[in-house]
Amino acid sequence: SIPQVLLIFAKEDSQSDGFWWACERAGYRCSIAYTPESALECFLDKQHEIIVIDARHPRYFDAEAVCRSIRATKPSEHTVILAVAPQIQPGQEESSVLPLLNAGFNRRFFENSSTTACYNELIQLEHGEVCSLFKLRACNSMFTALEHCQEAVEITSEDNIIQYVNPAFERMMGYCKGELIGKELTVLPKSDKNRTDLLDAINMCIKKGKEWQGMYYARRKSGDSIQQHVKITPVTGQGGKIRHFVSIKRLCSENNKQVYKIHYDEKYCGENSQTESLSSRHKNRRKESIDVKSITSRSSDAPSLQNRRYSSVARIHSMTIEAPITKVINIINAAQENSPVTVAEALDRVLEILRTTELYSPQLGSKDDDPHTSDLVGGLMTDGLRKPSGNDIFSKNMTQIQSHLVIPATPNDIPPQIAQLLNNEEMWDFNILDLEAATNKRPLTYLGLKIFARFGVCEFLNCTEATLKSWLQVIEANYHASNSYHNSTHAADVLHATSYFLQKERVKGSLEQLDEVAALIAATVHDVDHPGRTNSFLCNAGSELAVLYNDMAVLESHHAALAFQLTTRDRQCNVFINMERTQYRTLRQAIIDMVLATEMTKHFEHVNKFVNSINKPMAAIEETSSNSEGCDCECPASIKNSPENRLLIKRMLIKCADVANPCRPLELCIEWAGRISEEYFAQTDEEKRQGLPVVMPVFDRNTCSIPKSQISFIDYFITDMFDAWD
């Protein structure tokens, strides 16, 4: 197919002529429009593959607005849009391409009226993005073929969600498409005629990216079992990971009494398989959800079901196992061989638990039991989109979060009132709100100078105190003073708690100076540029940050990235500039890891790993020590000082510091509770205004009980974590 090109220029000039003649040279069909209105009308009529918009002269029309209006139409999903930007003048810094990308442009072309330059750009687009879009258009044809295919076809996601079934599948299984799409395979009833170990064999094969085929019994909607020949093919997507599974199913003849052998060897899964070996991540819970089983045996005189199961387990143990959890599951399977029935059933329950993806998240009871806890968990421990109703609107025009560099003013000497307050900063009862008032809402800079000096941060970083002052001011300036909770006072509060914990002997004995410096810096920057909204809100609103970070740890990723951007952008505040490269990389990684640890979706994972890797081993050793004479006292230290456990300690440290408000004196606790509630109230108000899903309905300023919400937060998140940390 020959690409069509639409040129949108307010006036014809050498640049528009360059693209026009380039289209002639390439054999493309070309149209030109002079106004946004005529451009949109022309595009809807011809649906061009390439659009070139003149972005050099904003006085004629807003190129970004034109692009957005085109992107708002359905046909534009198969269109590549190019922005023509003005040439960069000598000595001028190149501007960021992000505003153009956010407006919907695919590429930027700097002004060059040469026909050859325009031709080269168009040819590259044709062989790159346009070629890919032509392939996407062909998908409709492929689905038409699937609809008329005689074989039953089922397509599932990597998470085993049914995404497509064709009419042949509906006829074979007796279901309507609407009963299946969006459902997990686990909801479909399974036939009990299959060999119990077959799912293990199938999973072991397809999770390596290899094709599996064989016989199995499936249960139709009516309840009767039918024998099918099945081929399951993993399909890789971006990053070489398995994204889908395609199952092709054919009914076997009812008179066919042949017993098929499952070839879990070189025929389907061996090294010489015709199927390409794919590197992939595959969820073990697929074992519970695939309805592909078999009644195969090695002879007509079939062994007992129990013996067949054990021989399969033996074959699985002889294979290369990659994931540790798979090793654990197979060891438990082997342990079931000679176990009594009651033990085997208990181990089945263990396996069921292990196969879930939420190993560290406790399961709540009915949501009606405690709406405060339910809403807190839903709001704080989810990143992705909540399922919208038909009326939900996802705004793409959230206020862009600013990340500009603020030039710090030269700080005056610390006033006596502030200096007097800082005399108590080593105490847990230190009143950060008094410091907030005394510093005119700039407590982070003053407290940071005092704490960083106490820990010798400037000496470790080999930077001057003036550079540190500038850095603290830049970081503080990029916190939002308008936020009731997530402002620089909260950052100062977390920095104070972090420094307090770092003074404790058990922590000091576990960490090195680099760890301490990383913890102090991470605490300082951990919420920089926080917009006063949760991750779930940003994902539901389709914000630029959520798109940038793929709805995963959106804010925490932004805090960490922006902190380093602000620091390294100007020598005046670059506290890392004199560090040796390897040491800087180590410090940077430690800071990023700690900031990301403040994200709540992995809260229980961090806490449970800390308990299992540090609390329990240390308790066991100390108990042994109390019962033994002359034992080695260095054992507890060796547990804490391993690199893996130091990592867990640092994560736990900043997590406790981040949510330490309920552990502060009561008057501080009450003030912080009111501040965070006000942020949640404001978020609920905005969600209702924008028609977004309300993430935490209980935080309605007209009905919410702040004490109850805090009690739920303390019971669910705080108590166990601080018990473990203490």
Automatic annotation (TrEMBL):
<dbReference type="InterPro" id="IPR036971">
    <property type="entry name" value="PDEase_catalytic_dom_sf"/>
</dbReference>
<keyword id="KW-0114">cAMP</keyword>
<dbReference type="InterPro" id="IPR035965">
    <property type="entry name" value="PAS-like_dom_sf"/>
</dbReference>
<dbReference type="InterPro" id="IPR023174">
    <property type="entry name" value="PDEase_CS"/>
</dbReference>
<dbReference type="InterPro" id="IPR057304">
    <property type="entry name" value="PDE8-like_REC_N"/>
</dbReference>
<dbReference type="InterPro" id="IPR003607">
    <property type="entry name" value="HD/PDEase_dom"/>
</dbReference>
<keyword id="KW-0378">Hydrolase</keyword>
<dbReference type="InterPro" id="IPR000014">
    <property type="entry name" value="PAS"/>
</dbReference>
<keyword id="KW-0479">Metal-binding</keyword>
<dbReference type="Pfam" id="PF13426">
    <property type="entry name" value="PAS_9"/>
</dbReference>
<dbReference type="Pfam" id="PF23198">
    <property type="entry name" value="PDE8A_N"/>
</dbReference>
<dbReference type="InterPro" id="IPR002073">
    <property type="entry name" value="PDEase_catalytic_dom"/>
</dbReference>
<comment type="pathway">
    <text>Purine metabolism; 3',5'-cyclic AMP degradation; AMP from 3',5'-cyclic AMP: step 1/1.</text>
</comment>
<protein>
    <recommendedName>
        <fullName>Phosphodiesterase</fullName>
        <ecNumber>3.1.4.-</ecNumber>
    </recommendedName>
</protein>
<comment type="similarity">
    <text>Belongs to the cyclic nucleotide phosphodiesterase family. PDE8 subfamily.</text>
</comment>
<feature type="region of interest" description="Disordered">
    <location>
        <begin position="273"/>
        <end position="306"/>
    </location>
</feature>
<feature type="domain" description="PDEase">
    <location>
        <begin position="410"/>
        <end position="726"/>
    </location>
</feature>
<feature type="domain" description="PAS">
    <location>
        <begin position="138"/>
        <end position="209"/>
    </location>
</feature>
<dbReference type="InterPro" id="IPR023088">
    <property type="entry name" value="PDEase"/>
</dbReference>
<feature type="compositionally biased region" description="Polar residues">
    <location>
        <begin position="294"/>
        <end position="306"/>
    </location>
</feature>
<dbReference type="Pfam" id="PF00233">
    <property type="entry name" value="PDEase_I"/>
</dbReference>
